[in-house]
Design goal:
Elements: E1 12-16, E2 28-32, H1 36-40, E3 45-51, E4 62-65, E5 81-91, E6 98-102, H2 105-115
Antiparallel strand pairs: 1-2, 1-6, 2-3, 3-5, 4-5
């Protein structure tokens, strides 16, 4: 049976190579920051880059994401990961992503605010 592809909407974790070249050209988690309605209308897709390589203490632009070694959590992340809120990538309309889990809504709000993004709620 094939894998179910989750809808792309704010807070969805996707796996992709950053189009800017940042992130060493490897597939990595990113957090969608564009409303689903805008994606369906053909808008560019903004996403916040994430990294598994970071120093402690975290910087003011890094926010720790929930993870579990067996991916038994809402994000589906298996290793310690941070959202890097000053790393915003823009993908062309229609980009197909490998989908992962979701960032909890309260944490999405903090990440988007830290990134300086206003993501209106879906209707």
């Amino acid at each position: 049976m094939g894998r179910v592809v989750q809808p792309i909407s704010p807070g969805r974790i996707v796996w992709a190579v950053a189009p800017s070249g940042r992130g060493e050209g490897k597939k990595r988690p990113l957090i969608i920051a564009t409303r689903r309605v805008d994606i369906l209308k053909g808008s560019k897709i903004a996403a916040i880059g994430c990294s598994t390589e970071f120093d402690e203490p975290l910087t003011s632009t890094e926010i720790r994401l929930p993870f579990d070694p067996e991916a038994k959590n809402v994000t589906g992340l298996k290793q310690a990961t941070v959202a890097v809120c000053d790393w915003i990538e823009v993908f062309p309309p229609g980009t197909k992503f490998e989908t992962g889990g979701m960032v909890p809504r309260d944490l999405q709000r903090v990440i988007f605010e830290t990134a300086g993004l206003v993501v209106p709620p879906e209707r």
